[in-house]
Fold each of these.
Amino acid sequence: ANRGPTLACALVSVAIPVGLLSSGRIGFSFFPTPEPQVLYANVSFVAGTPRASMVSFMRELEQSLSDTEQALGGELILTALTREGEVLGDNGVARQGDNLGSMMVELVSPDHRDVRNKAFIREWQRRIQPPPGIERINITEQQSGPPGKDVDIRLTGSEPQQLKEAADALSVILAGIEGVVSTDDDMTWGREQLVYSLTPYGQALGLSIESVGNQLRAAYDGRLAQIYQDKRDEIEVRVQLPRAERESLASLGNLNIRLDDGRFVPLRQVVTFTSNQGFSALRHADAQLATDVTADIDSGQTTAGVVLKAAAQELPALASRYNVRYSFEGRSVDQQETLADMRDGLIIGLLLMYAVLVWVFSSWSTPLIVMSVIPLALVGALLGHWVMGLNLTILSLFGLFGLSGIVVNNSIILVSFYQEQRQRGLAVNDALNEAVVQRLRAVMLTSLTTIGGLLPLLFETSPQAQVLIPLVTSISFGLIGTTLMIVFVVPAFYTILDDFDLTSLARERKAHREKLVAAE
């Protein structure tokens, strides 16, 4: 009798969670991972820093770690390993140098402590007093799950110095966004370098940068002269300067360069040297010089999407100022590819579901009514994430796929019984009333048994189980919402369908004409 208001309420209920999602009140985190037990603290001083200064600071870092543990209640750390002269990331890539140091800290299992990793890192960072000459202190968690960072922005350009300045500026921008714990880039400073260029006299003699470089490499790195076999060993013979001269910077002043005509000239007459700080490694992507700026975030305060959206507002100006280009990499690329695949899979799945229902019900319109409950499942699932204070994840979407099949089963139970009542000769409204009354128990039992089986996992407090809770939330709350709404929405759709059912209208007109003929 009130099908219009009923369907209007259903439409509004679908719009509310969609609004919560689009406004950012329900965030999206691509792939949440269980809280790891291992933390890495990497320390980098400027090139040329004495090793003693680095070692002294590492002792202070150990003391600040101990003070942090005591301030947070104690008994939080299982082991702490200090490396001097080396930094090691969670991807296993190590760098060495007298200006580098690192610590690997293994905490007790998250199930046996109340202090979360982000809180521990913040407290530790607050107690660290950076000494003069330090370049970077970076404390991160061990990476788990799919490779890559949630926030990973790639900068590409032609000049290494400009690229590094752009990476530093981007790190400052990311660090100023709420919820960002730490930032890093893979374009780290290296040792001091000597850069040579030809003098006008060297150019007049016909020398080139390449020819001078080849002779310098032959002098200090050696040139392979012969390879011979000594029993089972293969021996390389290299011609190079004596070790004492190779290890002395003064030898550059005494080195002679050979010209094309066979003459020799002193190196200092044909080249000039300038010094600058180089990079430990220069990386390329798609044949272009590139660096990746990454950030670790606190999932309790923000999401990768929010951070990337905030950074995207500053990136055009930064790219213009430093003449670089930018792109989003890491898990954001995987997220786009995965969501595109899931969209295609959803379309294919709905088409196959519709085809099966058309075959079962021998009708083109009835499957649409059966499948109309799928958007209603989205209402309960999204509201469930909002009530539970959870972000949507890739597992939440998996839960929505499974939920679609469950709620369609409930709708089939109701529709099948309705059609049986119509075949018995009941009118539309009487058949709908009978179907809802008779099959309410079956629909409720199907939903309640599923929800009851998932409740223990839904309220599991173990940090290691938190990754599965979004999936359970989608199914449980989606079933709650559809179970309450299916008994109202499906009958409302059927009454509207009956008004436009030409077969039904023809049948009623035929019956009316037969009554008139019988009366005459």
Amino acid sequence: GLNMVDVAEAHGTHVEAQVLEAALKVPVVELVASKGRGLSALVDAAVALADDPESFQPNRPVIREKHRPVLAELEQLLAGRSLAGYPADWVALKLLEGDGDVAKLVKREEPDAWEPLHSVLVGHDDAYMDIAGGRYDWIARMVRAAVVQPRRGVASITDRIDRVATHPLWGLLVLLAVLAAMFALTYIVGRPVADALDGLINGSLAELLRDALSGAPAWLSGLVVDGVVVGAGTVLALVPILVVFFFVLAFLEDVGYIARVAYVMDRYMHWIGLHGKSCMPLLIGFGCNVPGILGTRIIEERRDRLLTMILTPFMPCTGRLAVLVFLGAAFFGDAAPWALLGLVGGNLVVLGLVGFATNKLVFKGERSAFIMEMPLYHTPNARTILMQVWCHTWAFVKRAGTLIVIISAIVWVLSSFPGPDIGDSILGHIGRFLVPVGALMGMGDWRLMVALLSSFVAKENSVATLGILFGADPGVDLAAKVAAVLTPAAAVAFLVVQMTFVPCVATVAAIKQESRSWGWTGVSVGLMLVVAFVLGVVVYQVGSLF
């Protein structure tokens, strides 16, 4: 499938599909996948090829001449051996490339064959250059006659934009401006709708249910209205804010700017021993840390992958940002957008410092190289953007409608029993036990500590817990109630701790899955717990001096 031919044409590049087909010896179908153009023809061509498999005789790349005899010798040594169903020629090529996983496979399944294979491989650790070079030589031959490039001297739109967007200084300023615009748009568009939805759910709907359950036992009415509706409703009221954020992120990705972010940030990623490819999972972590952790699969080296996993939970995900945006207006007033931008920026600085220290102390300062190809800028596709916004938003709503509802109900039960006074409840006793620790960070109110702990389930659950514990009555602003019990220094410390506190349980599970190690999972959780406590104490104690 020859995709994005419309973008290529717009930039003066023309690809002759028939010429490319003749070179590759496989059917080539022109596509504009974002608009559905050519998809039926692609399926028809695939079905026709599947019906006649003997006709599939593609032109394949070969390695350069120097190492062809070595590859042939490896293939001969592997002849007749079945390695988990892999073709012998493929196994030989991967061994010559230095693939560690394939080497382990051969050692495990064919231990007798490993010694003669190893004796051939010794002294040819440079073979991967001839393999990669052979592939690029093949690519050059395939496209030489098929691709017509713009005439020399013509600067494309992408070239003109990238003179600024990828500049070492201006590119960084553009990135900061984009982030600032994203938060400003979130406040201007998303906040008014969120306030209206919050009033509808926690006001009119809550009162309607309370009236309908007036004849039911008090505990049932409290559980349904104060536990489920108010708890989950407070979180659902954040959906408009998240929709704006998801829209901006999808727009930037679809237009091609996200790759420029990786390029601009590559030099800074090297400070912490990583490269621009690690920046992509971190950027995904802006939406949710879980796919960010899963996105580390694109990183080849385990060292880089582990370090990126450790750093990804430090990215301010939408759950954290939702709490930040919700409380920011009450804490900072008209200066909220700038304050939030500063908190997010500070979070990224902390990420860099933690990464630098971890790389130096744990990974002994190793560095990795990075090569990437940036896509052309192109007009964003509304359908693609809206699909991404819908998927992310629906995933959030499902979480709010299942897990967060359950946790909200549990928090209400713990805050209501055994006595009628919330201060004498189970949750109250837990919060009071943690007060000495919280007091060091300006959070002497036990309700704040409980809300912080509840964020382990889901970061946005802090808001639901605060709504229950502070008893947000209809018409009363929950954020204002929370702000009233905090000094300015304590308010900043609370948000700083919220931004760096331990990852949610889903992120912890993802780290365990991808690292395959409870040890590294524990390192991630413990590191964030220590960083959050230290930052909270420092911010509050220093802020109290002013």
Amino acid sequence: FRLSETGQNADVELTGANQFSEAIRVTGVDGSRIFAVIIDGTFSATLTLQYSVSAPGDWIDALAGSYTVPTGISYDDQLDNQIIYYRIGIKSGDYVSGTANATLSYSSGSQTGIARVTAFTSNTVVSAAVLTAFGSVAATSDWWESYWSAYRGFPSSVAFYEGRNWWAGKDRVWGSVSGSFNSDDDETEGDSGPISRSIGSGPVDRINWLGPAQRLLLGAEGSIWSARSSSFDEPLTPTNFNLKDVSTQGAGRMAAVKIDTAAVFVQRSDYRVYEASYDGGSYDYAVSELTGHVPEMGEPGVVRVAVQRQPETRSHFIRDDGTVAVMILDRQEEINCWVDVETDGIVEDVCILPGTGEDSVYYTVQRTIDGATVRFHEKWSMESECVGGALNKQADAFVTFAGAATGLDHLEGQEVVCWADGVDQGVFTVSGGSIGVSATSGLVGLGYEARYKSTKLAYGADPNAGSLLCQKKRVSQLGVIAVNMHAQGLQYGPDFDTMDDLPAIEKYARVDADTIYAAYDEEMFAFPGDWSTDSRICLKASAPRPVTLLACVMGLEANMK
């Protein structure tokens, strides 16, 4: 609570050098400038009265302002019509011993004190810690309660924007003094002063995030708000601050991520994803859904979000079941693609840091190893590390080794894959923290699969002949275009239970099973497709064998009867 009282008092207990009272502000003319200087106690020291003109800071010793014994005087500086600040204390070198109690008491002006209530006794009695000294202990009717407290609640979101530290909670938003992130002093005047505004429209149960985009965005559970000054987008000030409702979709209880001038956020359902981006037509932000074609992608609920910018923009959405939905978004190429990521365990958190060439992506993963629950911080490999070679870093929770494949206690009892000296060594079970492989360089980790299943295929026949989707058809041939592909790294088939390897014969010669194609663009080969109204292509790659698939083409036959 802040209390303001008539009159000013600065009390201080001085027990050493370089100790001074708070300042009092003296104004007016003649007798209205007189204030009392009171000193008592047992001490051996010299107390000095100091003044500063117009504002506290540049302190000067007052004439006849030195005291070595208890004193009680009225002091008149005779500086009519000037604003002078006074303080009293002991300068360096002027203290010997004892305690001096000094008071500056001025009947004019007012003094504001601040106290934090620490205990409640009754409706008229509380205990409080004094944060800023009061002018007196007399009652006053001029008081203010702080916005934030354990009783009133605290802000639920924070962000830096336009040189201010912004806080928001319930139906209110606060901006700090401009250029002073830890000051909300409401006595600061002018455009640099703090901003405190109510949204004034509801319902606003909670503001879940602040988005410092081209404009300051507020993600409330009921609406998305845009803070603007005017159509010219001048900086926000205490007198030039407006909130506009741009969507009633509402925001989930997790931070939004900034992608250039847009904010990507999870809707209050916790599994649909939206983007708030600037709309040149309305000169304000507008909201569009990014999960429109796959509304189930966020189920059973998103709990964490982080964005990766290199080598491409990927947003990682950690879901409630420990799996991850990764969104690849490229407006220039008109790409909005979603990929499921799962591991042998539960992904609990994600952190993304800038990196050289590619951003560094870290997952916190909970796994069950040798009957015990453990947690690992695991870093995504870079794409340049997943193209084959002596070390092909495609395995989960992997470690590298040179010589014997030891140091695998974190994978004790697990079935693992091993890549060593440029070759897939196969599948092993870790026992005693090792597997039976020795190599110049290699890695061991948990294997995983990358799967692709096409949509239901249609045949480009005469549409008058019947439904293109429902007529019987079969995929008879398949062609693959790829780079950095292991000769046995890709399997294909009509479903994931019926899979074939890539052809073992190319250009009338047997292919070495460990070959890695820098580029692959061979003739089409037979595909084991059956006649069906639901013909599809399924592709599967398995770690640690590299595959970078660029495209595939198919030969499709249709039964026109």
Amino acid sequence: MIQRILHSRGFVAAVLAMGAGAFLYYTHPFPEDQLFLLVISIRAPHAFLSFKYLYNTVLFTTPYIAFSTLLSGVYIFALKIRRRISPGRLPRYADPGKRDALFLVVGEVHNPRKPVPAEAPRWLTIPERGLFTGIAIFGAIGTGKTSCCMYPFAEQVLAYKAAEKDKRIGGLILEVKGDFCHKVKDILDRHGRSEDYIEVSLDSEYRYNPLQSDLDAYELAYSIAALLNNLFGRGKEPFWQQAYTNLVNFLILLHKVAYDYVTLFDVYLCAISPPTLEARIAEAEEILMGRHYVAIKPDVYGARTADLVGLGFIHDPKEDRYLAPATAQLRETLQIKGIASESKTVLNPAQADSDKLEKLEAIKRWYNDDWSRIEPKLRTSIVEGISVFLSLFDSNPRVKKIFCPKKECYDPAKNINNMYGKPLPSFSWLIENGKVCALNFPIGMNPGIAKALGIMMKLDFERAVLNRVPKIEAHPEQYFRQVLFLCDEYQHFATVGESDPTGDEKFFSLSRQPKCIPIIATQSMSSLKSALPGDTWRTLLQTFRTKIFLALSDDFSARTAAELCGREDQLKVSYNLSESGHDARVSLLTGKAVSQKANITASKSYNTQSDYRFDMKTFTELRNAQSVIVAYDGFNPMPPMFCYLKPYYNDPNKSYFRQVADGEL
């Protein structure tokens, strides 16, 4: 109130002057009955009237000057006192479970350019179309990335349409600490979605085979080779990646042809053991082209003819045996009757699957004309390049059990009551059914395995999401639920493809159409830069249109954040003091120049300069739950602004500044 009065001091002084003038006009009227003035009125009437009008005018102007001077003095004095603004009441925070539309409340906005409260704060919200363009969160250790961003954001997205099973949002959760998954489970429990939580860990009932998918062998091999590049770095010589891809491709193809199933352990075993590889090729040939029989010698058949009649045995002159198609029931019958028998396989290419047979021939050509002709030393180097990764699934029995399950695990007839573990459904099924899959494998247990599993699961998820695009385009009338990708400490799982067709930067650039909501958090841009080759971190960073900067502790990240927020023309004030003297002379006492007459001149000038909207100092001095945000609503970018985040453990309807005053932050 006082500030408003002081800012309108001219008008207030005029009103007060009118009141004081009216009071003086009636209490101290012009003394026209004085003798001297009577004489003037008779001899010079015009002069008398001028005196009278001047007197009445001064009755009003003098108070105006007095009041104006007084209010100006108060205004100048008040400038030295910092105004204390009480933060206004925020609009009511919308319950995530009751929202009709999907949007994300990031935090509260007061003064967008200064970290001070405002009398009319507002919420910073990102609508659904803006969420599909990605959100990246940057903040040093202990700045509140998880508590102020990841937890509240996850709850708002996962609580949307929680009561409608056909519209619930599913997705993938990746983290490295081991506690975030439990928070996500609590969120789902609170909103009645307990059955939607699926956790993959060393203690869970689920089994996840990264190679159990509908992708062909080359795509799977290429993914593994790309994973090796991201784990151990890309060499300057492309031969090694090509060799890795070729070897893994044919090993996967061999097992798919022979057994319709392959695990990373199978690939590892055949890669390091040439006898095993040769035996698998021979076994594949036998499985494809051979027919299995139960054989009985003629003398045994003659002695037990009565017991063998009706079992389908026919004499084969070439083999000099009585043969019958091998079945489990026949073997059991012979065992019960105590009749000696043997197994016999007869090759018959005409009975083989032509497609698989052609693939087997390709495998044999590769093995005989390519792999076997490579020098043993070079072949050992190629094997060692992939075994350093694949051996992770052999050295740890628990990891092997969960991520290299037996084939029976995927056979409903043999895996009754999930005796071999419960197979993890495909990500396509998980997405379309609103399931939330979380990888709970803390990186402290084994950094190599944790990173490898997280990346493989992420790549499977990304493929499943992109495969939604043709379906969405083919059925525009159908409702397709949104998909969430949430990754804490993203620098551990980030992958880029550069010239390759895979990579997060390619997925995030296409994730808008399949309705994916990517939300990632990392400690700094330096973390991404150190984890990715070359300048690929820039390509990855530009795919996230909304960027949230909490306190940053390194100069590179702070400088990059300042550059991303942009520059603008700002009015700069400069002061200049100068002193000049006349008749100057040198003092005999001090030896300095002195003068009898001196002038001091002070000047103040204004000029515009292009400067950062938020400088590096701003990003390094942000308090907890305080951030600078560059947001995007799906159509237009919002200008960078201060935004105050809402920790999950505090009341979101209580202003940030009140929480600070009450010691809650």
